[in-house]
Amino acid sequence: MYQINKISNNITKLKQCLFSELGFRERENLQEWIAKNPEVLGEELLIIQKEFDGFNDTNERLDLLALDKEGSLVIIENKLDDTGRDVVWQALKYTSYCSTLSTSQIIKIYQDFLNKTSVNENAKDLLIEFLDLENEEDLILNKNDQRIIFVANNYRKEVTSTVLWLINHDIKIKCFKATPYSLDEQMFLQIDQIIPVPETAEFMINMQEKEKEEVKLKGKIA
After folding, report:
1. d(Cα 146, Cα 91) in Å, to the nearest integer?
2. What residues does 193 pair with on adjacent strands?
3. Is the peptide bond before 38 cis (omega within 30 degrees of 0)?
4. Contact 34, 41 (CB under 8 A)
5. Which regions in the chain score pLDDT beneath 70?
Protein backbone atom coordinates (compact mmCIF):
# COMPACT_ATOMS: atom_id res chain seq x y z
CA MET A 1 0.00 0.00 0.00
CA TYR A 2 1.21 3.50 -0.85
CA GLN A 3 0.34 7.01 0.28
CA ILE A 4 -0.25 9.51 -2.53
CA ASN A 5 1.32 12.96 -2.31
CA LYS A 6 -0.51 15.23 -4.77
CA ILE A 7 1.91 18.13 -4.23
CA SER A 8 5.04 16.17 -5.17
CA ASN A 9 3.12 13.93 -7.56
CA ASN A 10 4.70 10.89 -5.93
CA ILE A 11 3.85 7.92 -3.74
CA THR A 12 5.38 6.66 -0.50
CA LYS A 13 5.28 3.00 0.46
CA LEU A 14 3.65 2.21 3.80
CA LYS A 15 5.31 -0.29 6.10
CA GLN A 16 3.29 -3.47 6.58
CA CYS A 17 3.30 -4.39 10.28
CA LEU A 18 2.01 -6.86 12.82
CA PHE A 19 -0.53 -5.69 15.36
CA SER A 20 1.85 -6.75 18.12
CA GLU A 21 4.60 -4.52 16.70
CA LEU A 22 2.30 -1.53 17.03
CA GLY A 23 1.13 -2.44 20.53
CA PHE A 24 -2.47 -3.25 19.57
CA ARG A 25 -4.55 -5.85 21.37
CA GLU A 26 -7.36 -8.07 20.18
CA ARG A 27 -10.15 -7.11 22.57
CA GLU A 28 -9.25 -3.51 23.34
CA ASN A 29 -8.44 -2.49 19.76
CA LEU A 30 -9.43 -4.68 16.80
CA GLN A 31 -12.68 -5.78 18.39
CA GLU A 32 -13.63 -2.19 19.26
CA TRP A 33 -12.82 -0.91 15.77
CA ILE A 34 -15.15 -3.48 14.22
CA ALA A 35 -17.86 -2.94 16.84
CA LYS A 36 -17.88 0.79 16.08
CA ASN A 37 -17.52 0.34 12.30
CA PRO A 38 -19.11 -2.99 11.28
CA GLU A 39 -19.39 -1.75 7.68
CA VAL A 40 -15.69 -2.61 7.27
CA LEU A 41 -16.93 -6.19 6.84
CA GLY A 42 -18.55 -5.27 3.54
CA GLU A 43 -22.20 -5.15 4.55
CA GLU A 44 -24.64 -3.49 6.89
CA LEU A 45 -24.48 -5.27 10.24
CA LEU A 46 -25.94 -4.40 13.62
CA ILE A 47 -23.72 -5.26 16.59
CA ILE A 48 -25.99 -6.53 19.37
CA GLN A 49 -23.44 -7.72 21.95
CA LYS A 50 -19.74 -7.84 22.77
CA GLU A 51 -18.05 -10.66 24.67
CA PHE A 52 -21.32 -12.58 24.69
CA ASP A 53 -21.28 -15.31 27.35
CA GLY A 54 -24.95 -16.22 27.62
CA PHE A 55 -24.40 -19.94 27.05
CA ASN A 56 -25.64 -22.65 29.38
CA ASP A 57 -23.04 -24.66 31.34
CA THR A 58 -20.01 -22.90 29.83
CA ASN A 59 -17.97 -19.79 30.53
CA GLU A 60 -16.98 -19.30 26.88
CA ARG A 61 -17.35 -15.87 25.23
CA LEU A 62 -17.72 -15.00 21.58
CA ASP A 63 -16.14 -11.74 20.45
CA LEU A 64 -19.00 -9.99 18.65
CA LEU A 65 -22.59 -10.98 18.01
CA ALA A 66 -24.39 -9.21 15.17
CA LEU A 67 -27.50 -9.30 12.98
CA ASP A 68 -27.57 -8.91 9.22
CA LYS A 69 -30.34 -7.28 7.18
CA GLU A 70 -32.18 -10.62 6.95
CA GLY A 71 -32.38 -10.91 10.74
CA SER A 72 -29.82 -13.74 10.81
CA LEU A 73 -27.26 -13.98 13.59
CA VAL A 74 -23.64 -13.35 12.63
CA ILE A 75 -20.87 -14.67 14.88
CA ILE A 76 -17.72 -12.55 14.50
CA GLU A 77 -14.42 -13.92 15.78
CA ASN A 78 -11.32 -11.71 15.80
CA LYS A 79 -7.70 -12.79 15.99
CA LEU A 80 -4.66 -10.55 15.66
CA ASP A 81 -1.49 -11.82 14.00
CA ASP A 82 -2.33 -15.53 14.02
CA THR A 83 -5.65 -17.39 13.89
CA GLY A 84 -4.31 -20.35 15.80
CA ARG A 85 -5.43 -23.89 14.98
CA ASP A 86 -8.76 -24.04 16.80
CA VAL A 87 -10.56 -20.86 15.70
CA VAL A 88 -12.94 -22.71 13.35
CA TRP A 89 -13.95 -25.22 16.01
CA GLN A 90 -14.37 -22.38 18.48
CA ALA A 91 -16.66 -20.44 16.14
CA LEU A 92 -18.69 -23.52 15.25
CA LYS A 93 -19.35 -24.14 18.95
CA TYR A 94 -20.53 -20.57 19.44
CA THR A 95 -22.72 -20.80 16.37
CA SER A 96 -24.35 -23.98 17.61
CA TYR A 97 -25.04 -22.31 20.95
CA CYS A 98 -26.60 -19.28 19.24
CA SER A 99 -28.74 -21.38 16.89
CA THR A 100 -31.31 -21.91 19.65
CA LEU A 101 -31.77 -18.23 20.54
CA SER A 102 -35.35 -17.00 20.14
CA THR A 103 -36.49 -13.56 19.01
CA SER A 104 -37.30 -12.51 22.58
CA GLN A 105 -33.90 -13.69 23.83
CA ILE A 106 -32.09 -11.78 21.09
CA ILE A 107 -34.06 -8.63 21.88
CA LYS A 108 -33.04 -8.97 25.54
CA ILE A 109 -29.38 -9.54 24.57
CA TYR A 110 -29.44 -6.37 22.48
CA GLN A 111 -31.25 -4.40 25.19
CA ASP A 112 -28.61 -5.43 27.73
CA PHE A 113 -25.94 -4.22 25.30
CA LEU A 114 -27.73 -0.89 24.78
CA ASN A 115 -28.15 -0.38 28.51
CA LYS A 116 -24.35 -0.58 28.86
CA THR A 117 -23.50 1.63 25.90
CA SER A 118 -26.29 4.17 25.38
CA VAL A 119 -29.09 6.06 27.10
CA ASN A 120 -32.83 5.38 26.73
CA GLU A 121 -32.56 3.33 23.54
CA ASN A 122 -35.20 0.67 22.91
CA ALA A 123 -33.85 -2.54 21.37
CA LYS A 124 -37.09 -3.56 19.70
CA ASP A 125 -37.55 -0.18 18.04
CA LEU A 126 -33.96 -0.14 16.75
CA LEU A 127 -34.30 -3.68 15.39
CA ILE A 128 -37.50 -2.81 13.53
CA GLU A 129 -35.77 0.23 12.05
CA PHE A 130 -32.62 -1.70 11.10
CA LEU A 131 -34.58 -4.47 9.38
CA ASP A 132 -36.90 -1.99 7.62
CA LEU A 133 -40.01 -3.64 9.05
CA GLU A 134 -43.46 -2.08 9.01
CA ASN A 135 -44.66 -3.39 12.37
CA GLU A 136 -43.62 -5.33 15.45
CA GLU A 137 -45.36 -8.53 14.32
CA ASP A 138 -42.87 -8.88 11.48
CA LEU A 139 -39.92 -8.97 13.88
CA ILE A 140 -38.78 -12.59 13.64
CA LEU A 141 -35.07 -13.16 14.26
CA ASN A 142 -32.71 -16.09 13.78
CA LYS A 143 -35.11 -17.91 11.41
CA ASN A 144 -32.33 -18.63 8.89
CA ASP A 145 -28.98 -20.37 9.33
CA GLN A 146 -26.40 -18.49 11.35
CA ARG A 147 -23.28 -17.05 9.74
CA ILE A 148 -19.62 -16.81 10.77
CA ILE A 149 -17.10 -14.07 10.05
CA PHE A 150 -13.39 -14.35 10.88
CA VAL A 151 -11.04 -11.36 11.03
CA ALA A 152 -7.28 -11.87 11.36
CA ASN A 153 -3.93 -10.74 10.00
CA ASN A 154 -2.70 -14.25 9.19
CA TYR A 155 -4.63 -17.46 8.49
CA ARG A 156 -3.09 -20.88 9.02
CA LYS A 157 -3.51 -23.39 6.20
CA GLU A 158 -5.51 -25.76 8.39
CA VAL A 159 -7.96 -22.92 9.02
CA THR A 160 -8.41 -21.86 5.38
CA SER A 161 -8.75 -25.45 4.14
CA THR A 162 -11.41 -26.18 6.77
CA VAL A 163 -13.29 -22.99 5.96
CA LEU A 164 -13.34 -23.83 2.25
CA TRP A 165 -14.65 -27.33 3.02
CA LEU A 166 -17.40 -25.91 5.22
CA ILE A 167 -18.41 -23.38 2.56
CA ASN A 168 -18.68 -26.24 0.07
CA HIS A 169 -21.10 -27.86 2.53
CA ASP A 170 -23.35 -24.79 2.78
CA ILE A 171 -21.93 -23.33 6.00
CA LYS A 172 -21.93 -19.55 5.58
CA ILE A 173 -18.45 -18.28 6.46
CA LYS A 174 -16.37 -15.29 5.39
CA CYS A 175 -12.72 -14.57 6.17
CA PHE A 176 -11.28 -11.06 6.26
CA LYS A 177 -7.60 -10.20 6.37
CA ALA A 178 -6.83 -7.22 8.61
CA THR A 179 -3.45 -5.64 7.84
CA PRO A 180 -1.98 -2.70 9.78
CA TYR A 181 0.46 -0.28 8.13
CA SER A 182 2.57 2.58 9.43
CA LEU A 183 4.21 5.66 7.97
CA ASP A 184 6.24 7.74 10.44
CA GLU A 185 3.76 8.41 13.27
CA GLN A 186 0.66 7.61 11.20
CA MET A 187 -1.05 4.20 11.27
CA PHE A 188 -3.44 2.67 8.78
CA LEU A 189 -5.66 -0.41 8.61
CA GLN A 190 -6.69 -2.34 5.52
CA ILE A 191 -9.44 -4.99 5.74
CA ASP A 192 -10.06 -7.24 2.73
CA GLN A 193 -12.37 -10.20 2.23
CA ILE A 194 -10.22 -13.14 1.17
CA ILE A 195 -12.62 -16.11 1.48
CA PRO A 196 -14.68 -16.36 -0.57
CA VAL A 197 -13.13 -13.80 -2.90
CA PRO A 198 -15.99 -11.33 -3.53
CA GLU A 199 -15.67 -11.62 -7.31
CA THR A 200 -16.17 -15.41 -7.14
CA ALA A 201 -18.68 -15.69 -4.30
CA GLU A 202 -21.75 -15.65 -6.55
CA PHE A 203 -20.13 -18.18 -8.90
CA MET A 204 -19.46 -20.53 -5.97
CA ILE A 205 -23.07 -20.28 -4.82
CA ASN A 206 -24.35 -21.02 -8.33
CA MET A 207 -22.05 -24.04 -8.64
CA GLN A 208 -23.25 -25.41 -5.30
CA GLU A 209 -26.88 -25.05 -6.37
CA LYS A 210 -26.11 -26.79 -9.66
CA GLU A 211 -24.43 -29.69 -7.84
CA LYS A 212 -27.43 -30.04 -5.51
CA GLU A 213 -29.81 -30.24 -8.47
CA GLU A 214 -27.65 -32.88 -10.12
CA VAL A 215 -27.62 -34.98 -6.93
CA LYS A 216 -31.43 -34.76 -6.70
CA LEU A 217 -31.83 -35.78 -10.34
CA LYS A 218 -29.51 -38.75 -9.89
CA GLY A 219 -31.52 -39.81 -6.85
CA LYS A 220 -34.79 -39.72 -8.77
CA ILE A 221 -33.32 -41.69 -11.66
CA ALA A 222 -31.94 -44.33 -9.33
Report:
1. 11
2. 176
3. no
4. yes
5. 199-222
